[in-house]
Amino acid sequence: MTQDAPWWKSGIIYQIYPRSFQDSTGSGMGDLNGITSRLPHVADLGADAIWISPIYPSPMKDGGYDISDYTGIEPLFGTLDDFDRLTDEAHRLGLKVLLDFVPAHSSDEHPWFQDSRSARDSGKRDWYIWHDAAPDGGPPNNWISEFGGPAWTWDDTTGQYYLHIYAREQPALNWRNPDVADAMLKAMETWYERGVDGFRVDAVEHLTPDARLRDNPTNPDWHPKDGPARSLFRTFTSHQADLFAHVRAMRSVAEKHGRKLLVGEAYGNLDEVMLYYGANLDGFQLPFNFELINAPWHPRGIADFIDRYEAVIPPGGWPNWVLGNHDRDRIATRVGNGQSRVAKMLLLTLRGTPTMWQGDEIGMLNEAVPDHMLQDPWAINNPGTGIGRDPVRVPLPWDDTHGRGFTTGQPFLPLSTVPSVAEQDGDPASMLSFVRALIALRRAEPALSFGSYERLHADNGVLAYARTAEGKRLAVALNFTDAPQPLPVRGKVLLSTIHDRDLAAVDELRPDEGVILEP
Ligand code: NOJ
User: Which of 48, 62, 82, 265 is catalytic?
Assistant: First the structure.
């Protein structure tokens, strides 16, 4: 298994949000040359791949997830030459490069949509999803945009509504039109030919919303804090049967270009997520598993989920785990600083490929964002609710100079309040030093990346499990509480979340402590 395994099975993926990683021009927003200059940070951390959120031309109505040219580079971020340099440098440092592919919608400024909306008989009309008004003049059905409000916008020029599962500036592409599918697969090929090693595929559950446009049922358990979109079940907008043929087509293009990696973003229950592996493992190699983001922070509940997840992964399929991303509250904000080390130990010792979100390695927190700086359409459309993703997207603090080493200009979002990379770099007790040590241990021990998983213990305070490979067994014991807890498995302790711990004298778990040991 360890010999012939593809890189991503033992690999660690590090997500970069280009706007907030590193600015190289003083514009206040990150860019490609900035990313290139900071790649050594990612390599030193011990990651194997970067996934870069969208870098294509975009009016930036949804942070680049509204694309107006699938094969270009957004001028704010740089040029294709800059991109080639970034890829070369990443490869030189041993890092794979994954781009973000956003198939379900384009920008309303994409020439395809401009053409489509120009006339009912436009050659591109059917590239998007247009429909007559309901008899009362309202939208064709009850679907709600993920960002709030109807999922349909009226277009005066041609007198019909168009569908947008997200912002109105993100019209849904019609994947039932084979020309759309062809054009999108060609865009993927263009990037493979340029040297990228795979894609994270965005919002794929929305690729083929119900052709009959049936109403989504109401969710009786809805709470307003979950945002308007959750007031309906997504019965007819998500995971529709005919999208999986497109997933398979993406995979065959990936295979044709040398077994490239596809990581799929599809929010759903376990059964739904499993569909994306493909009936013959011919779908995504890694359909994202978001449970560590969604689950209450409780050892028994998480242990039960791990068992359920391990049990349903199809034979030959490979697990994966995610602790945070640009859409969800920061882990250190969700569980607190102490637990955030425990969370990282969990992420990096479970069986499966971990994806790390930029800045979690230094314990970044959600930061307050004043109204006048809001960027996120979700926040802008839902004022006063506290909904929004800007707080998790503030720039990485690299050092303690003006602009915290991120920019020499005015940052597009407020700066972070946590100690910088430079400050943590020299501090053996820092979060950064801990994460580096954790990853180094994971890389040194095949049991931690390839090993089998076995639950050893789970109660209200502690989760413990064993990982075994090549005849070597390691155990992980995690205290999910801020009180001391009994250590359910004894052995030689290799690493603790607590920096100055005497590893020879661990006989209980201290508050917020996790350990890796050799029983
Ligand atoms: C999921 C992305 O992660 C999110 O940031 C974006 O707003 C939506 N998809 C729409 O593309």
Answer: 265
Residue 240 CB partners (closer than 8 Å, separation 6+): 207, 208, 209, 210
| Catalytic residue list contains 376 | no
Q: What is the pLDDT of residues 71-125, one digit of tens each?
A: 999 999 999 999 999 999 999 999 999 999 999 999 999 999 999 999 999 999 9
Q: Is the pLDDT of residue 3 over 60?
A: no
Q: Dihedrals φ, ψ of 29, to 5°?
A: -130, 145
Which candidate, 324, 356, 348, places its Cα nearest to that of 451? 348
Checking if the pLDDT of 419 tops 60, the result is: yes
225 band by pLDDT with thresholds 50, 70 and 90? confident
**What's residue 271's pLDDT?**
97
User: How far is ligand 1, taken at its centre, from the CA of residue 357, in Å?
Assistant: 15
Whether 434 has a pLDDT exceeding 70, the answer reads yes
- With a 6 Å cutoff on the Cβ, whether 379 touches ligand 1 is no
Question: How many contiguous H segments (helices) and E segments (strands) does the chain have?
Answer: 15, 18
pLDDT of 165 > 60? The answer is yes
How far away, in angstroms, is 399 Cα from ligand 1 center? 29
Share of the chain above pLDDT 70, in %: 99
Tens digit of pLDDT for each residue in 453-484?
Answer: 999 999 999 999 999 999 999 999 999 999 99
Given a cut of 60, whether residue 37 has pLDDT beyond it is: yes
Question: In 337-363, which positions are buried (b, 16+ CB within 10 angstroms) versus exposed (e)?
Answer: ebbbbbbbbbbbbbbbbbbbbbbbbbb
Is the pLDDT confidence value at 2 over 80?
A: no
The answer to whether residues 167 and 61 touch, using CB atoms and an 8 Å cutoff, is yes
CA–CA separation, 319 and 354 (whole Å): 9
Residues whose CB falls within 8 Å of the CB of residue 154, separated by 6 or more in sequence, listed in order: 133, 139, 160, 161
310 Cβ partners below 8 Å, 6+ apart?
319, 351, 453
| Measured CA distances, 359 to 264, 419, 512 (Å) | 22, 11, 20
User: Cβ(65) to ligand 1 under 6 A?
Assistant: yes
Which phi-psi region, left, alpha or beta, contains residue 213 (left: φ > 0; alpha: ψ -120 to 50)? left
Which atom of ligand 1 lies at the shortest distance from residue 104's CA? 11
Q: What spacing in Å lies between the alpha carbon of 434 and ligand 1's midpoint? A: 31
Question: Does 265 qualify as catalytic in the annotation?
Answer: yes
Q: What is the DSSP code (8-state) at residue 124?
A: T
The DSSP symbol for 301 reads H
Cα–Cα separations (whole angstroms), residue 518 to 236, 493, 495: 49, 6, 10
Does any ligand 1 atom lie closer than 6 A to the CB of residue 202?
yes
How many Å apart are CA 2 and CA 243, to the nearest integer?
33
- DSSP code for 285: S
